[in-house]
Amino acid sequence: MQLGVTEFQSAGGFNPSMKSVADHAALRGFSAARRGSNPAHEARVLEAARLFRDVISGQTNPFFLQQALNPTEDIAVQWLQENYPGIFPAHLKRGQFALREVMSVTDYQALFVDVIDRIYYGYYNAYPVGLLPAVRQHTLNDFRLVSRFLLDGLVTPFTIMDAAAPAPEQSLSGPVPQDGSPFPITDTAPIQYQPSLYQARASVNWRAMVNDDLGIFRDIANRLAIVANRGISQFLTKFFFSTTGLNTSLFQAGYTNLITTAYGAASNNPPLSQQGLQDAWKVLAGMRDSSNYPILPMGKPYLIYGPAYEATVKNLLSSTKSMIQVEGGTGNAQGFPAQFVEAMNWSTQNMTPIMEPFIPIVISNASGNIKNTAWCLVLDPAAQNRPAVEFGRLRGFETPQLFRRMPNTMRVGGGVDETMGNFDTMDNDTKIVSVFGGAVIDGRSCVGSTGAGV
Description:
This protein is an alpha+beta fold. The chain is 27% helix and 19% strand.
């Protein structure tokens, strides 16, 4: 409660003659101290509090509190002066405020424990598993080792034979199993891998669930699914890239699948560009099998790249024509074009881009800017007799599966309480499970570049 308007101003209220907020603050502090030492002011506050108490308890009619706030009836004012002496100043006139309720910012903090308007914003949007089309997917029956055989040999070279010559001696050597090692054949072991169990979990206590009036824990399943997809994406990315750049198990000299001048490219490890893609196709066209015979690259191409190339790829895929001074055009000794060739953008035809955000995360220890410049081109594994990578998932777990711990808390005389979870901890546990593995099979259907230019 507060005094009348004139007394409010004299007690430190807003005064237009004051020049600054600091002046008003200083005056309010001085006036507060003065009011604290004023017996008449203390008496009025005491009587106002007593009146308010009596109205709340029902001893006094609320009409008199209204009259104390805004006096309009002389008889009511007289009654208040008799029963609550000192509540009205002597100079009070009809229509003036005797008492006034004032609420400040700090009062709101005292009256409300929280804000009224509250919003819970959910989790970030996450990328799906983008590399699945670039690997051969296989369903596994159990956790045991799987073996993949590559059979070379068996057939003799196609050579001239003398029709009158005796039949050649029969050799007892048959097909040679190998694990995809580059020619010449040095290993007869099969390619093997074993699936592993992967899981992530979340635990929420019953007390937190009771207090959750914003639905914070409704997206637990979504969060678990995001974690599982991220784990699969990172697992697949490591088949194509390593901590230092390209994965040397897949991209190596033995497979001749590095985009370098040694295998037909115009430059070593070109960045992703029109020229870089043309070099990739040239290297693919020169692929040979383990007997050094040419093989035909087939299938839809998948372009795998990191976030730094996003604008480059969009520009390449949206372009319709190219003005080329190389690969058909000519340039002078200074490097300026002497003759252009206007060509359709054939290098990206039927190409599917795969932006893999885990590439710069996996390439964590590379020199220079390789984590942003490395890229590769992979032909559709479904069109290959020998795909670049196989990815195997346990039957029934082709997609990650959600599981929940069965609640075991029961009310006496009642059934299981689904919300109270575990009897000892009162936690509600949820987890997501997947079982998968994989291996490099043969690198002759893909080519890669570090993008470093060397």
